[in-house]
Design a protein that fits this description.
Elements lengths: L18 H10 L13 E2 L2 E5 L7 H18 L5 E5 L5 H14 L4 E4 L7 H12 L8 E5 L8 E7 L8 H16 L10 H6 L3 E4 L1 H8 L6 H6 L4 E4 L8 H9 L3 E3 L30 H4 L7 E5 L6 E5 L3 E2 L2 H12 L11 E5 L4 H10 L3 E4 L4 H9 L2 E6 L3 E4 L14 H14 L3 H12 L3 E8 L2 H8 L10 E2 L2 E9 L6 E9 L2 E7 L5 E8 L3 H19 L6
Parallel strand pairs: 3-4, 3-5, 4-7, 8-9, 8-10, 13-14, 13-15
Antiparallel strand pairs: 1-2, 2-6, 5-6, 10-11, 11-12, 15-16, 17-22, 18-19, 19-20, 20-21, 21-22
Length: about 550
């Protein structure tokens, strides 16, 4: 992985996007649906792209919105649609475009009161709470966000009535309909003016912030945090939760400081990520340099990405915890401090997450549910309580309320962040120290993730890797035990492959959100063994891409 010389440094002016030109491109640049890169394409979490590249423009949003209206009618979904936006420059224009279509189609739309930004988990919580105990008049939702992607990106995600990200059956149907609409020149789009849509009788104000903040005590032990006088620092990274944190501090009388309340669509306050781009990734040490530098001011500190569905935990001793470390510690804590959770509730992880979670599961005598990358695979289990926790290596997680019922069924960055303070309060040790205790019990694990650029065509080839393409019988000197292209927990396609040996594994897959690929590796035999694993993994990926050395 080639690290940019700018990585970890303040963003220079040359990296800042021209917001006016970006918004102009959103409205003026028309995509050509005959070009694959300009079509609607749902990745692991919605359609994402850049207006300058004609991969995210008004035409895309109009077509997707109309396709969602068709899907709702087809499925008999006639309750309200909750819609939220993050702070990316294209989110406001995309929201306006979507509202024009939704209102023209007679959809009851719940928009954020006062135009407040809305975290992804606040939309999920609204859907789950509305639908609790209902069989008719079910709600669904849209989140206008490209998550932690760079400032020139836009994104559009649909959440069906279970409240989590839509599955591939749903997104595949919507994607096809939207592309058909694009190819038809948008003639089938119903639309009214924005002024008409805002005044339509079907457009309603909803206080997402108050609904979310007032419910938090049912999922996090905020009394314990307050009672232990835990000093917390949070960096919203200029994201949708920027006004949620002060409200949480005020309502629950917490010692919580917002270290950077700025909202700026250029995200000029960020330090640059590994590849020389601005990216609001709370799991990246390069992007998190600002908060890491303040760690000694607090007992625990944390950040969330732009739509607040991912978390980053910073401790005094360990600095930024690798997501796998925090997920392992959080699982170990939660399943011993939530006595009202179902006794048979399983632990969900993705195929690229650490084996430490497997060891913790065994210690807790809980079932492990291992699925492909994508939080959609956890939504149903979190909704019905068969999963107590679902977590992804990319720092996304959610878990049940304290009484064992559903909280959010989409990733929630705020509750893992606050849980780190609860853990510190209740255990007298921060999550980094708790993870160190786990390594004393279960052994050290060396892990890394390699990322590199990949074209859309290369990503397709990588997603179609097959076991036969692994000709070797060994991995870093050990016999290969399994070559997986389907996840053990649900037999769903991984969209890449995972190679497993006794003391190590690697997985390779294309990103579902950007034009990059990722290789994950882990070893229980130390860093040298891990490097051997990653070297052999890179060779397999190079062969699959058909261009050794070009990626």
């Amino acid at each position: 992985m080639k690290i940019s010389p700018l990585a970890g440094k303040p963003a220079p002016p040359t990296l800042l996007v021209d917001i006016a030109k970006l918004v102009e491109a959103y409205y003026s640049e028309a995509p050509d649906p005959s070009i694959p890169a300009q079509r609607v394409a749902f990745g692991t979490s919605g359609h994402r792209g850049c207006a300058f590249e004609r991969s995210f423009n008004e035409a895309h949003v109009l077509a997707i919105s109309q396709a969602i209206c068709r899907y709702r009618r087809r499925q008999g979904i006639d309750g309200p649609l909750f819609i939220g936006i993050d702070t990316h420059a294209l989110s406001g224009p995309a929201f306006a475009s979507a509202l024009q279509v939704l209102a023209a189609n007679g959809v009851d739309v719940m928009v954020s009161a006062g135009g407040e930004y809305t975290p992804t988990p606040a939309v999920s919580l609204a859907i789950v709470n509305h639908n609790r105990g209902r069989s008719t008049g079910l709600a669904d939702g849209i989140v206008v966000t490209p998550s932690h992607n760079p400032p020139d990106n836009g994104g559009f995600k649909y959440n069906p009535p279970h409240g989590g990200p839509a599955g591939t059956d749903v997104t595949g149907w919507i994607e096809k309909q939207a592309n058909d609409i694009l190819e038809g020149g948008l003639r089938e789009v119903k639309r009214m003016t924005l002024a008409q849509a805002e005044k339509a009788p079907t457009t309603h104000q909803y206080d997402f912030l108050d609904a979310y903040v007032s419910d938090l005590g049912n999922v996090i032990d905020l009394d314990a945090i307050r009672g232990a006088h835990i000093r917390m620092g949070v960096d919203p990274l200029g994201g949708a939760g920027v006004h949620y944190w002060p409200a949480i501090a005020d309502r629950y009388r917490l010692d919580l400081s917002v270290v950077n309340p700025a909202v700026d669509a250029t995200f000029r306050f960020m330090t640059v990520d590994w590849d020389g781009r601005i990216r609001m990734d709370p799991s990246s040490t390069y992007a998190m340099q600002g908060l890491i530098g303040l760690k000694d001011r607090f007992d625990i500190a944390f950040a969330c990405d732009t739509d607040h569905d991912r978390h980053g935990i910073v401790t005094r001793e360990a600095g930024l915890l690798p997501p796998n470390h925090y997920l392992s510690a959080a699982i170990y804590y939660l399943f011993q401090h939530r006595p009202d959770w179902p006794k048979d509730a399983a632990i969900g992880k993705t195929v690229v997450s650490t084996r430490m979670i497997d060891r913790v599961c065994a210690k807790l005598a809980r079932k492990l549910h291992e699925v492909p990358v994508g939080f959609k695979w956890f939504s149903a289990g979190l909704l019905d309580g068969t999963l107590g926790f679902g977590g992804e290596e990319s720092a996304g997680a959610s878990f049940l309320r304290r009484d064992g019922t559903a909280w959010t069924t989409d990733k929630d960055g705020l509750i893992p962040a606050l849980l780190s303070a609860e853990m510190t309060a209740r255990m007298g040790r921060d999550p980094g120290e708790i993870y160190r205790d786990l390594t004393a019990q279960f052994g050290e694990l060396a892990a890394d993730r390699v990322q590199a650029a990949a074209t859309p065509a290369q990503k397709i080839r990588l997603a179609q890797l097959a076991p036969r393409q692994v000709s070797s019988k060994s991995l870093a000197g050990e016999p290969i035990q399994a070559v997986l292209t389907r996840a053990p927990g649900n037999d769903a396609a991984i969209g890449g492959l995972k190679v497993v040996a006794e003391h190590g594994w690697f997985a390779a897959r294309p990103s579902g959100t950007e034009n990059i690929y990722k290789i994950y590796g882990e070893s229980s035999r130390g860093e040298a063994h891990l490097r051997d694993i990653l070297t052999e993994a890179q060779h397999i990926v190079d062969q699959a891409l058909g261009a050794v050395g070009e990626t």
